[in-house]
Amino acid sequence: MEKHLFNLKFASKELERNSRKSEKDEKTEKLKLKKAIEKGNLEGARIHAENAIRQKNQALNYLRMSARIDAVASRVQTAVTTKRVTQSLGGVTKAMDSAMKSMNLEKISQIMDKFEKQFEDLDVQTQTMESAMSSTTTITAPENQVDQLMQQVADEAGLELNMALPSGEVGSIGTATAASTEQDDLSKRLAQLRQM
After folding, report:
1. pLDDT tens, 148-181?
2. CA distance 138 to 22
3. 3-class secondary structure for the chain?
4. pTM score above 0.90
5. Dist. CA 53–CA 47, nearest whole Å
């Protein structure tokens, strides 16, 4: 079982490496996007923006899979630890029997200290497993993210992006601002109610 645990940890590390590589590729695509915008190549810029978003999502997916494998590895680690503790408890029970027969209180105390230490180790393993099991949310890359990324890179580079936005996009921005204002008003009202 320990061999499987090693393989799980190795796979998790490999996924983390792949995630870092995807993040690096995302940065490379953003640089290519910036250069394409500088040259006025909007079609090429769009391709690089899509690639950057795909790499970002791939990096997140690798991290998500790594976290899941860590969770499985933690469960396997708990099983291995539980097996060790069970074996130790068997040994402790035998040692306690022989200690009780001789009524050696010092030996009983040493055995009980060892017993408590093993349970503390088990608690640490359980806490590690629980912390590794946090859930993640899925992320999608809709068309408007591509446009936003292209605009962001152009703004950071101080470039003018001559890209015609569909008329629906303009209306959605105004709606988002109105929704944000409405949310702010609701937050203020909630704060006032709490103060009463």
Report:
1. 888 888 887 777 666 544 444 444 444 456 666 7
2. 17
3. CHHHHHHHHHHHHHHHHHHHHHHHHHHHHHHHHHHHHHHCCHHHHHHHHHHHHHHHHHHHHHHHHHHHHHHHHHHHHHHHHHHHHHHHHHHHHHHHHHHHHHCCHHHHHHHHHHHHHHHHHHHHHHHHHHHHCCCCCCCCCCHHHHHHHHHHHHHHHCCCCCCCCCHHHHHHHHHHHHHHHHHHHHHHHHHHHHHC
4. no
5. 10
